[in-house]
Design goal:
The complex is a heterodimer of chains A (287) and B (359).
Chain A (H helix, E strand, L loop, with lengths): L1 H30 L3 H4 L14 H6 L4 E2 L5 E2 L5 H35 L5 H13 L2 H15 L5 H25 L4 H7 L4 H12 L1 H17 L2 H6 L8 H5 L9 H27 L9
Antiparallel strand pairs in A: 1-2
Helix pairs in contact in A: 1-13, 4-7, 4-10, 5-7, 7-10, 8-9, 10-13
Chain B lengths: L3 E10 L2 E11 L4 E5 L6 H9 L6 E6 L2 E2 L10 E4 L11 H7 L8 H15 L14 H13 L5 E5 L7 H18 L2 E6 L2 H7 L2 E6 L2 E6 L1 H6 L4 H6 L6 E8 L5 E4 L2 E4 L11 E7 L5 E3 L7 E10 L4 E6 L5 E6 L10 E5 L6 E3 L6 E2 L1
Parallel strand pairs in B: 3-8, 3-9, 6-7, 7-8
Antiparallel strand pairs in B: 1-2, 1-4, 4-5, 9-10, 11-12, 11-14, 12-13, 14-20, 15-19, 16-17, 16-19, 17-18, 20-21
Helix pairs in contact in B: 2-4, 3-4
The chains are: A mainly alpha (287), B alpha+beta (359).
Bound molecules: adenosine-5'-triphosphate (ATP) and magnesium ion.
Magnesium ion binds next to helix 1 of chain B.
């Protein structure tokens, strides 16, 4: 009985892994192949001569394979490089700004009582439920008048309107479950600011780190606003820059290589912060 | 060393009254228990004494000084919270040190106090562990250490033992009383467990729905309850209640169903034909198989064996339940008809409408 359910468990994990990893593998495989290998039929499951040509091409370098084929630099390279730079800057700034706003905000909503709390909270959370598309056109016409179309500052502001409510909502739940250390801190003679900065924040470190990660990933992956507001400008971000491949001679290897490129920062981030993800239940063992 | 004086404390939460018009004096070095059912305002009272909550009206006076508007830290109190709350991200030692961080004491004095406290509570090996790595009893000791290291005037404890298992509670409660008597610090201890209250307290304050019902020694509260509520709440198994009537005349008598007895001078001031509520402790009920005239009949509802004695639960004709303590050897199948009676000297009397004791 137990062995049988264990077998099912393993099978489930295997299916889930395949489900997640197969598309990723397929993209990486494309990125390591030449044009003719990509178009081979039936498809090759393993790249016959894996080479990093496509990665170098999209970053603006020519590459000659071992068999002497020249893979020329992509015409989109400048856009990709620009997008990479902008996306990193934007994601870091959005993360910092989001956390500066959200940590105190979520704390106040999670742990303190004040007048009209319910209504204010409702207003914040309403923003979570709005689909981004619904605010796209208002933002666009506003930005045309404010000259913010095609600027990183414009995209920064729009992204904050999404990350702040979303991350507040997530972090609130986490902070609510922390034990009532405020009373303890007040008995010990600490000010509210001290309790927040020196007790709650260190105590809630894991939740805050994970929340920051969500903000980073959200900004890094944001596509809808970027597509409308910054495509083709100097403020282009990586997801928007990648769509450039769709309007050119099909280069599946280049598209796959740039997709792989976008996956690297989130992977690195999650890899180094996984300790915090698993530590998320830092709450009173008795409660 | 502190006397605490609460004068007319009120604190409302929306419609529900947290506490209402509370007056209480706590003597220097006394261990006062706040006892009452869930939601009766025990924690609210304690938080107001601590200064974590401001009363809507009334005054908190510690040692003749009005501290109502002082923040908790300046009242020189220490508090242990429910389930021995500690800062979860700090070790035992760091938790204890947090109590002294704002004390203005010198580094050496702090170190001396921490090691002294660790010795008193025997927690040396626990100092470098995180609270999540301590057992319930160990956490309790560390939380107590965190409280006493400040050498406060007043200890406030809010159900510190509630989350622990029965055996551990028994050990820890005698340790706490021992500590309090050695340090001679005024202590206010909140619990809803009446056994804990009876065994620990110098005095017990019984609260109900935000009001103080009675304050007195365990003996007062147990043997001379002021109200029906106190009579029913204190004591285990709880007191039994029988409706009765006073028959006036030359020598007033009391009637309870088929039972009638001389009052022998008690209740002399009560006029005849007054309804009363008669309260009798389970150990004062006599249960027998054959009743004569003047006994009450009941049927067996359940029998609980406690080892050195048994509790028999009987159902009266009006379907109320009555508990009596009987010898451990007694066998009584459910449904058996039995007779019971009691001596009038053992009974307490209450006004059934106001609930006040009639003496
Ligand atoms: N912050 C609050 N907001 C609203 N109502 C409250 C608050 N604190 C307490 N109350 C209400 O006041 C009453 C007394 O609460 P209190 O916490 O003092 O009870 P308690 O005697 O400590 O009960 P327990 O044994 O369950 O801890 C309860 O009815 C409770 O619902
Ligand atoms: Mg309470």
């Amino acid at each position: 009985m137990a062995a049988r359910s264990k077998l099912w468990g393993i099978m489930f994990v295997v299916v889930a892994l395949l489900w997640t990893l197969m598309p990723l593998y397929w993209i990486v495989r494309f990125a390591l192949e030449t044009q003719s290998e990509v178009s081979h039929f039936p498809p090759l499951f393993f790249p016959p001569n894996p080479q990093p040509g496509a990665f170098l091409n999209i970053l603006g370098f020519n590459y000659t394979t071992a068999s002497g084929i020249l893979l020329p630099a992509s015409g989109q390279a400048s856009q990709i490089l620009l997008g990479l730079r902008n996306s990193l800057i934007l994601a870091v700034l959005v993360t910092i700004a989001t956390m500066l706003v959200v940590v105190p905000l979520a704390y106040v909503f999670a742990r303190l009582d004040f007048a009209h709390k319910g209504k204010l909270l409702g207003a914040i959370l309403l923003a979570v439920s709005l689909p981004p598309v619904s605010t796209l056109i208002p933002f666009y016409s506003l930005y045309v008048q404010l000259n913010l179309v095609g600027t990183l500052a414009g995209l920064f502001i729009v992204t904050l309107t999404i990350t702040i409510p979303l991350v507040t909502w997530m972090l609130m739940g986490f902070l609510k479950n922390l034990p009532p250390v405020e009373s303890l801190g007040r008995i010990d003679g600490f000010s509210r600011t001290y309790i927040f900065m020196r007790i709650v924040v260190p105590m809630g470190k894991s939740g805050i780190v994970v929340a920051a990660m969500i903000a980073f990933l959200f900004s890094w992956n944001e596509y809808v606003y970027a597509q409308v507001l910054v495509t083709g400008s100097n403020a282009v971000t990586l997801p928007a820059a990648m769509t450039g491949f769709l309007f050119q001679v099909p280069q599946p290897a280049h598209l796959a290589a740039s997709l792989t490129l976008t996956l690297i920062p989130p992977f690195v981030l999650v890899f180094f912060l996984q300790r915090h993800i698993t530590e998320l239940n830092l709450v009173d063992p008795i409660r | 060393m502190a006397r605490i004086n609460l004068q007319g404390i009120s604190k409302k939460f929306g419609a529900s009254a947290g506490v209402e018009w509370l007056d209480m004096q706590i003597a220097d070095g006394e261990l006062l228990i706040l006892l009452g059912p869930s939601g009766c305002g025990k924690s609210t009272t304690l938080n107001i004494i601590a200064g974590l909550m401001a009363p809507a009206s009334g005054k908190v006076i510690i040692n003749d000084e009005d501290v109502t508007d002082l923040p908790p830290h300046q009242r020189n109190i220490a508090m242990v919270f429910q389930s021995a709350l500690l800062y979860p991200h700090l070790t035992g030692r760091q938790n204890i040190l947090m109590s002294l961080k704002r004390s203005g004491l010198g580094r050496e004095e702090i170190a001396r106090r921490v090691s002294e406290t660790a010795t008193i509570l025997d927690i040396g090996p626990l100092l470098d562990k995180l609270p999540s790595h301590l057992s319930g009893g160990e956490r309790q000791r560390v939380a107590t250490a965190k409280a006493i290291v400040r050498q406060p005037d007043v200890f406030l404890l809010d159900e510190p033992l509630a989350a622990l298992d029965a055996a551990l509670r028994l050990t820890l409660r005698s340790e706490l009383v021992n500590l309090q008597k050695r340090l001679r610090t005024t202590m206010v201890f909140v619990t809803h467990d009446q056994t804990e209250a009876m065994t620990m307290g110098d005095r017990i304050a019984v609260m109900r729905a935000g009001r103080l019902e009675q304050i007195g020694t365990p003996d007062d509260v147990y043997n001379r309850p002021d109200t029906l509520f106190v009579a029913g709440f204190v004591g285990s198994p709880p007191m039994n209640f029988f409706p009765g009537e006073i028959i006036g005349g030359e020598s007033p008598r009391l009637r309870c169903g088929a039972m009638e007895g001389e009052l022998k001078g008690r209740l002399a001031t009560v006029p005849g034909n007054t309804q009363v509520m008669i309260a009798v402790r389970p150990q004062h009920l006599r249960v027998r198989e054959e009743g004569g005239p003047g006994t009450l009949s009941a049927t067996v509802f359940a029998l609980e064996h406690l080892g050195k004695e048994s509790v028999i639960i009987l159902e009266m004709p009006d379907r109320t339940k009555v508990r009596a303590i009987v010898d451990p050897g007694v066998r009584a199948p459910v449904g058996t008809a039995l007779q019971l009676d009691f001596d009038m000297e053992d009974a307490l009397f209450f006004d059934p409408t106001t609930g006040h004791a009639i003496r």
